[in-house]
Amino acid sequence: MTTPTDETLLRQYRERKQNDALDELVRRHIGKVRSMIYQMVLDHADADDLTQEVFCRALVGLDEFRGTARFSSWLYTIAVHTTQSFLAARTRFRRMDSGPLDEKIDAGAAPDERLLGAEVNDAIHAALASLSPTLRSAIVLTALQEMGMAEAAAISQCALPTFYWRVHRARAILGKKLGGILKP
Amino acid sequence: MKRPLDDVLARWGSQQAPGEARLDELRHRVTDALGSRRLVELPEVARPRDRHRWRWALGGAAVAVAAMLVLYAIIAPSRRATADANDNSSPLARLSDAELRRSAALFRRMEEVFGDRIRWIDDDGGDVQLGIASDDGSASAPLLVRVVVLSRAAGSREWTLAWKRTLVTRCEERVDLAFDARSRMSIWAYPAGDGRIALDASLALAAPVPISSLCSELLNANAPKCVLEMKTGDVEYQVVEIVQDLSKKGLSS
After folding, report:
1. What confidence tens digit (pLDDT) does each residue in A59-88 have?
2. ipTM of the complex model
3. Which of A92, A176, A177 to mutate to test the interface with B (most CBs of B within 10 A)?
4. Of A21, A150, B139, B147, which sees the most CB atoms within 10 A?
5. What is the full DSSP assignment across chain B?
């Protein structure tokens, strides 16, 4: 039996109100949406809240989704803009969460023999936090979520040359701040 | 083969990913939240009419209108003007020589006191707010950024100033300002090297009109640029941005 596409599930939910179809869509995308949001807000509690908000907005706005784009792109567009709005509204003196690393990683997280040390982790966290929200989302979408430039620019609703420039600036800033870590 | 930066970011990303248990918990939380929204989609049952329904309806309509205005401002790129604001709105946004000299002098004075720790100055709204870092930063050039909201009645040619914010910031310094619970502005500016200045600006205002704009622009020095046009009722609004490098000759001394 073939696995239904996102668009098929969406049609099942919209036309027949099959809640199972919606649950399956959430299951498929929650990991990526949540990791994308975390990498932009750098705070686990905020990332959980925003993930919930993004899925709720996506559901409320289902009628606006015409199906001309992929459902995943539409969902990620909502995630990027919801997160950027949140970051813009965050009080100016609030510091990014940089709590102890062991609080951030679940025991169930996949082991990685190339685990970064706590200092390196904190340095990456701080370097990402120093970027403006638009630069941070540009590097998150391309380097961390491994999207192509055109797709990432479309999700950011940004012209491709501007998006290239953002990625270039973000890489230059991160390269400068993480220079010591990146040296072989 | 991945470049070193991509590799180290990918490893960081995978380490920050939540485990299955946490993700499962979040999935249940999301589906529960969606479940409460689904109730809205059930066939309506007859409810007693009472005055509270009107209150809800009016409240809902107000929220819907506000949401539409905000969405309209965000997603209507066709309405976004990209040309310099060279009509009669320009004089209201343009920076006079006296203003530029005053801002440059103010930043110099603050620099004498705080050194490189002074990161930005918000010079509007009656009193001056300072952004001071806890330790020395880079001594990058000061840039003046002004964001204004102009309004005019439909059919009128004259624009009036509805809202204005002027601040001096160092290049590549992210500035977040909160004016009240619902009105905020974030900016990040950087000289592009060809005389123009790249400006990322996010503006959310509750008054004089609900506006939410997120713009990334390359601006010529002291050339007002309209980045957003919108109309609500009989009133038209423009959001105009203007920037100037204060380290330029004639302003820095």
Report:
1. 766 655 655 567 888 889 889 988 887 887
2. 0.80
3. A92
4. B147
5. ---HHHHHHHHHHHHHSPPHHHHHHHHHHHHHHHHHHHGGGSPPPP----HHHHHHHHHHHHHHHHHHHHHHHHH-GGG---SB--STTHHHHPPPHHHHHHHHHHHHHHHHHHGGGEEEEE--TTS-EEEE-SS----PPEEEEEEEEEEEETT----EEEEEEEEEEETT--EEEEEETTEEEEEEEEE-SSS-EEEEEEEEE-SSS-EEEEEEEEE-TT--EEEEEEEETTEEEEEEEEEEETTSTTT--
